[in-house]
Recover the amino acids of this structure.
């Protein structure tokens, strides 16, 4: 690793791999491993040769939610176990966001693997028109953990499909009274397909406008006390963000449903004040509007309860969920409705379904996952470690002038960084994200990667959501890395 080795420049949080030939062996070098921090490596010709896996993936597959020019060298991952995953150079990383906030049970949980293998041997596929054991077992298990009253299920293969199903169900259910509009919120993400992207408030929706999304979705303000859209203070605000929804419903007319992430996920882990969700549910009931809780990310123990709504004793009319239901071992989406909604379709045609509905393999790890959450006391672990996380992150805030806010619940937290703490001026904006401008969070994430931490970022905040099996020591390792990495943001704060 001589001084004549080329340095690589990084604009993205992705890990970039280069190779070096050594005799007849191909060695992979991670750019962040060397003593000097960044090492390129050379082939005999003086040019870094390509990792064949990386080359094939980049050449033949799309990188999602990105400009494709930044998809030339996606990280080559070769193994994952527990709370870690390993790249092709052998470097191990702490998975500090559970991949896409979905690997709640960590990697290589043997109980889940065994359940999948058993189902694959027994019946890997049968159409959705049949009764099979795994469908009955999963449904029975869900009744025990879902909020009371949610006891009719539609099984799909992702969170976005779960939300699509919910939208079709509520529009069919509300059709007799002519209601079809859906209220979402500006700070939200509900999926990538035509219905769910229409209900998404963040800039990913912009690229689907005007023709690639369904009509009839309107947006309400968020419950975000750090950046209150009404510039009020809690509790003197009277929960204006909730009361305004009542105003919207009465003035819009024809509102069929409202969808909310009980704790907003990717867009900042916004934990509502205690009055907010109960009041929203009450407003929906008073106006005959279906209340949908999108628990794709916040569900399955992430907040210290089976579902985030349980923290406020709210009973939705519909819950949509996915990710943690299988620990991401198989792709499953779940749309759960009340019996009242289900009964409507006794004499009205249920016009929804697809080939992979209630797919046996997709459902196969659910019962095992629920048992593992219980066996390892992971809901309790999330609650207890959440207290420790709160303490540590608030200590970080005291030491780092770039931190504007820390917030969270259970093992679901965000650090929001700002250029000016007094004015709350962000380092970056939604437009920056949409146009591919360099982001400060990505610079910090690159520093975390050097220290063996992979961290999810979004515009001006970090979503900290490690696997629920994480230990206190592992959590401290990740937070200690943040303590060092945040210096790059501190250096660019306006003083």
């Amino acid at each position: 690793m001589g001084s004549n080795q080329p340095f690589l420049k990084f604009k993205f949080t992705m890990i970039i791999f280069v190779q070096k030939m050594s005799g007849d062996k191909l060695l992979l070098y991670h750019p962040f491993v060397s003593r000097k921090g960044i090492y390129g490596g050379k082939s005999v010709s003086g040019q870094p040769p390509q990792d064949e896996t990386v080359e094939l993936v980049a050449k033949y597959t799309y990188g999602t939610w990105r400009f494709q020019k930044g998809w030339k060298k996606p990280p080559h991952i070769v193994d994952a176990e527990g709370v870690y995953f390993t790249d092709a150079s052998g470097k191990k990383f702490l998975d500090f966001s559970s991949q896409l906030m979905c690997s709640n049970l960590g990697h290589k949980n043997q109980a889940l693997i065994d359940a999948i293998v058993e189902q694959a041997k027994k019946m890997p596929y049968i159409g959705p028109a049949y009764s099979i054991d795994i469908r009955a077992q999963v449904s029975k298990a869900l009744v025990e953990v879902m909020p009371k009253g949610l006891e009719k299920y539609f099984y799909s293969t992702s969170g976005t499909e779960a939300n699509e199903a919910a939208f079709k169900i509520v529009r069919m259910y509300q059709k007799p009274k002519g209601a079809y509009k859906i209220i979402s919120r500006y700070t939200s993400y509900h999926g990538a397909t035509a219905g769910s992207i229409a209900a998404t408030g963040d800039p990913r929706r912009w690229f689907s406008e005007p023709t690639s999304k369904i009509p009839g979705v309107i947006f309400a303000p968020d419950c975000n006390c750090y950046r209150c859209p009404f510039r009020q203070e809690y509790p003197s605000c009277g929960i204006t963000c909730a009361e305004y929804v009542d105003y919207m419903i009465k003035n819009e007319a024809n509102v069929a449903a409202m969808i909310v992430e009980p704790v907003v996920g990717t867009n900042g882990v916004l934990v509502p004040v205690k009055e907010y969700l109960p009041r929203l549910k009450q407003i929906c009931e008073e106006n005959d509007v279906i209340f949908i809780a999108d628990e794709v990310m916040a569900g399955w123990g992430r907040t210290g309860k089976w579902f985030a709504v349980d923290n406020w004793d709210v009973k939705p009319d519909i819950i949509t969920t996915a990710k943690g239901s299988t620990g991401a071992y198989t792709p499953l989406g779940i749309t759960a409705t009340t019996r009242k909604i289900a009964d409507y379709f006794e004499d009205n045609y249920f016009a929804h379904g697809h080939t992979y509905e209630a797919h046996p393999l997709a459902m196969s790890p659910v019962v095992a996952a629920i048992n593992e959450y219980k066996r390892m006391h992971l809901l309790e672990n999330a609650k207890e470690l959440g207290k420790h996380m709160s303490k540590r992150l608030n200590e970080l805030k005291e030491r780092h002038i770039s931190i504007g806010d820390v917030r969270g619940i259970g093992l679901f937290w965000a650090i929001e960084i700002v250029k000016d703490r007094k004015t709350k001026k962000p380092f970056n904006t939604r437009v920056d994200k949409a146009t591919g401008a360099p982001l400060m969070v990505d610079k910090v994430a690159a520093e975390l990667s050097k220290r063996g931490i992979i961290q999810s970022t979004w515009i001006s905040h970090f979503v900290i959501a490690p696997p629920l099996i994480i230990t206190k020591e592992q959590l401290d390792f990740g937070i200690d890395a943040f303590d060092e990495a945040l210096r790059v943001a501190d250096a660019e704060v306006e003083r």
Observations:
- The longest strand covers residues 412-420.
- The two ends are 39 Å apart (CA to CA).
- The chain has two domains: 98-106+377-490, 110-375.
